[in-house]
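User: Show me an example of a complex going from sequences to structure tokens.

Assistant: Sure. Here are the input components:
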Amino acid sequence: MNSSVLDKRMELTDIVGQLNDGMTIGIGGWGARQKPMALIREIVKSDLKDLTIVSYGGCDVGMLASARKIKKLVFSFVSLDAIPLEAHFRRARSAGEFEVMEVDEGMFQLGLKAAAQNLDFLPCIAGLGTDVMTYNADIKTIKSPYSEDHYVAMPAIKLDVALCHVTEADQRGNSWIGGPDMFFDEWFCRAADKAFLTCERIVETSAFNDDHKILRMPIERNLVAGVAEVPFGAHPTSCGPDYGFDVAHLKAYSATAKEGWEGYVSEFIQADDYVKSVGGEDHIRSLPLPAF
Amino acid sequence: MSTDYTLAELAIVAASEIFRDETPEVFATLIGTLPKLAGYVAKETFLPGMMMSDGIYYLAAEPVPVGPRGDYPIKKEGRIGYERVFTLIAKGNRHAFVGPVQVDKYGQMNLSCIGDYATPKVTMLGVRGLPGNTVNNRTSMFFANHNKRALVEGEVDMVSGAGYNPARYPKGKYPRGLDHRQIVTNLCVLDFEGPNNAIRVRSLHPGVSFEEVQDNTGFDLVRPDDIPTTAAPTRQQLDIIAKWDPKNLRSYIFKDNPPGVRAS
């Protein structure tokens, strides 16, 4: 066999080069935690448009919204955790700049899990009695074949591409999530035709010959099409245990929702050296891990 | 009984009572300063088996102090990442104590947006887990400002959390897990023990009248013949609150941190 198929290392620009207008893109992480922000910045800089974005949303959604990349948003919430409401999302959503599919957090994961198993839907009762059913007229209820109960048939959320940020990966696409919660990165990858990972560091495969690490490796490598090494690639979101989210940066970013965010784009997103532009490696390493 | 307590402390202790009839090892989700401290009072007085998270990932073996805690090491007893949370929500043995933006006479809640859905006047968080919480778990609510913008006339703008509104369910049948318990506000405690789960005044905070509560509510409240006054905190309860809130974040729960008994 050709061993080069097991070298999946890529540059950020090459990953974004694999994306097309109109694609449905799932983004791993949660709120202001473990988001593949380096890839998001690369998409902001690109000509991509009309994307359907699927995310437990944070500043990934806010930035793509203000960059006018979103045609439709599939979400349960958009939040920066320490800052409960996401200013860019709020502005764009209130202006009606994109369509929405707003569902319960549990429905959302079932949609990914249905897609991951090639099912049309998975049943649940979340959604019953709410306007989730009013505003998503294509989500049907079904009667149980076994009782008189009625369920919501949460449709599969099929993704063209999943983008996630992990702590370590090898060139084959094996990966280790070092932060406490692995969130739903696994299910984004399983629901997608192709998954791309960014990581804090590329390691040798032998680094994963470790019974403790293996417990935190939910994404098998044949789900992964490409891996890019991007130290601090989740900033300004957190990437435990290495660094927390950057509240001061997120506050400054939030303030640009009202006044226009061109300055933010030129100062940070288009910076030649992003890490330096936000205060350097030592600053990011010193950011405390989230606590509530 | 102590007479030297704040409205926040009174409301925390009143809110701890929402857990009085809970199962011995209920998983309580406590979002915000008041719900957390209320849960802690319950855990340390009558519900020692209550399970709770650190708000991030771990099951906490004992309460976690509210607010910034520096290097304070939380005591862990397990893990409770989001994927597991969603699984246990569907199983049902959970009590979610939440702070929505609006509630209506059915107990329906809004956390999504105000105004037209396509172009909302105000965009908030999104429905989050409220749809699943409300049809699977016991639900209680906290409102820091009891007024007609929060306790609204008609239905809430976007029904994010389900309630006792038969028109919204297949064949009008409530899901098995629909079980709203209490609403704690700066004026009173409400429950769902009126006819057909109608919202009823359960107790009035000292110095508050039924009329004042009704005047600040967008729907008709059920008025029992005798409405008790919300019980004053005990010394033990106040000590528990102080222990887990060393930075006095509870002084920010209500505007101007008023006393528990209104000055007459």
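The lines above are the inputs; the final block is the predicted structure for all two components together. The mean pLDDT of chain A is 96.
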